[in-house]
């Protein structure tokens, strides 16, 4: 049996991304970590790790893979993530009744914030 142990995000500045993702997800560093690789784990409860890897990587758009983050209060979470340094991403093909908001972290890695309230639309 296989399970997802970690999602790895390539980045240029591990420290900056560490600050963003630990606050965004309420994660904490998993020791040991070094200057080039920082595994993060949920502060409480189960969940996949998110690891930050300082490795050269060309950004492609649209990205081949992205995170979907589920939110009970999408508007509040989007605003909180913007205060942490994330930005909304405009996509002209996004349906008007979409339940997701496309965002990017401080280095441009894309993710979506999904409204999990039943019948909700963004």
TrEMBL record:
Domain VOC positions: 3-116
Pfam families to which the protein is assigned, alphabetical: Glyoxalase_6
Gene3D superfamilies: 2,3-Dihydroxybiphenyl 1,2-Dioxygenase, domain 1
Signal peptide: none
Superkingdom per UniProt: Bacteria
CDD domains, A to Z: VOC
SUPFAM superfamilies per the UniProt record, alphabetical: Glyoxalase/Bleomycin resistance protein/Dihydroxybiphenyl dioxygenase
Disordered as annotated region, ranges: 36-57
Matching InterPro entries: Glyas_Bleomycin-R_OHBP_Dase (IPR029068), Glyoxalase_6 (IPR041581), VOC_core (IPR037523)
Protein's recorded name: VOC family protein
Organism: Agrococcus sediminis
Upper taxonomic lineage: Bacteria, Bacillati, Actinomycetota, Actinomycetes, Micrococcales
